[in-house]
Predict the 3D structure of the following.
Amino acid sequence: MTSHFARFLVIVLLFNCFLELEAFYLPGVKPRAFSPDETVDLKVNRIMSVHTQLPYLYYSLPFCQPEKIVDKSESLGEILRVDRIESSPYDIKALKNENCKVLCAEKKYNKDEVEQFRDKVASEYRVYWIIDNLPAAIPRLWQNSEGEAVYVYETGFPLGYKDSEDGTDKLYLNNHVDITIIYHRDEKLFPGQVEIVGFEVQPESVDHSAYDPSKPDQPPASCADRDSAPSLELAVKSDTLRVLWTYSVTWEESTEIAWTNRWDKYVLNTDPQIHWFSIINSLMIVLFLTGMVAMIMMRTLRADIGKYNSMDPNEEAEETGWKLVHGDVFRPPSHPLMLATLIGSGVQVLGMTLVTMVFSVLGFLSPDYRGGFLTAGVVLFVLMGLLAGYFSTRNYKLFKGTQFKKNTITTALFFPGIVFGIFTILNMVIAGQHSSGAVPFTTFLSLIGLWFGISVPLVFLGSYFANKKPVATDPVRTNQIPRQIPDQLWYMHPVFSILMGGILPFGAVFIELFFILSAIWGQQFYYIFGFLFMVFVILVVTCAEITIVMCYFQLCSEDYHWWWRSYLTAGASAFYMFLYSIFYFFTKLVIPKFVSALLYFGYTFIMSFAFFVLTGTIGYYACLFFVRKIYSQIKVD
């Protein structure tokens, strides 16, 4: 049964990797087809800079606006991702080309408004638009592993640019855009209609000072030869600035790009071979650990068990090894309530991660579901409160705890409270910067409602079911008087062994971690869930095996305090994850503002904390299974 499941899992993963290389998503979203001259809505999203990490609403700058701004209804994930989608005044018709069309009447900006544009251009803010759920992007040339030059998409386009002349920096505003909409015909499904499969934008800075407002139907003369026209400078001491916003639209047919793989250029901006290298690197670590575990289990332990079972009871006291601590190995740990709480939270995060991964691998969380991944994560975390309460109480009973109500309340509030507290502080910091990244008050109430209205009751329900089940019987009896632990060698010191144990799980995932951080803080897409799922499976195996190895060495040293050690050994990988995020911050990012740096380290700490409870719980249960298994095989008088 197990072998058949393993084969099935391998087939599913390989099939999913193939689908991802083609950017095809199994459930998908129903394609939208457009008839000729049908209105195509261009929606505006936000402006964002990787140097500040502070998003702002598109209309926070004085752009041209429609008569009535219509907001798109947003999911919880879209709000948390700051995807505020609004209507725009751009008039685009299907299959109809436009050449330098005036967007709105010439705008006259005062000194303060000019300074707003200068500040955003100097910080390299980018503009984000959407057509048919496809984000605006700039095509850039990229060389794949086979040496072929291909075009991939860089989402968003610059609001302006900086040019250094004579040692001084001059800022220019991009007030013209060339919009290219790529379409595909599928006469079988949509006869006479087209599907949008690409949305490209090339911004330009053009000084339309020769424009005659009395002739709005005539495009500016500067549009005829934009290459030779002067750029629109944002002067430092400009009291007023006249800006004419223009755009051109070009429709291009593509026979190669179908609707099912229209996200190729968005998501395939990294070399798949690098991910395969990450997988192979992780597999080498797993094979090394598997060999050690096999040696311990099949040779050393078998020999130990055979020797212990054939030993004369009168000679047993003269021997050394893991059997001598059989009367103390199941002695309850110190701070049992905190350990049980962390285990329950770890199971909650593990359940959320596993289910989200499965949905992602099957394609239910494709890019067309904007904010779907984050929405699924939040909802699943809330629902997994049932598992948190159940496993926390089960382990608390195993630890001989008595304060069950306190344990349940702590499980329901501790981990979510820390995450929500940091999130609230960061949200206040963002709100202080007048950024649209601040979560609205109504969303805050929704999150609190999910927490206290659903998650907390589910934790109590899980605790109720756990209390009704009897505690698992220990394979050996615990002595009343604790055994004295002999002096340990330097390499078995808890701090050293824990830090050493955390290196390998981190080493199995750190390459993929680079791509995840780049996607989060570099405003890129990350939808290679097939690779991510394989790395996650390898992480689980690595955490389990390194914890078993370190636990065996600890018991052989006659140190029976393994409960906390098993949790912290695997959980120490989160420490290296946070250290790597610090290295990434100083080597890959350029974030000069303190507020932006605070946001980075605040959210990174939340990620590391969740990674800590996740890996720690995996290590704990692996060690619990190992210890129960080996002590159930020996004869104890």
Q: What stands out?
A: The radius of gyration is 30 Å.
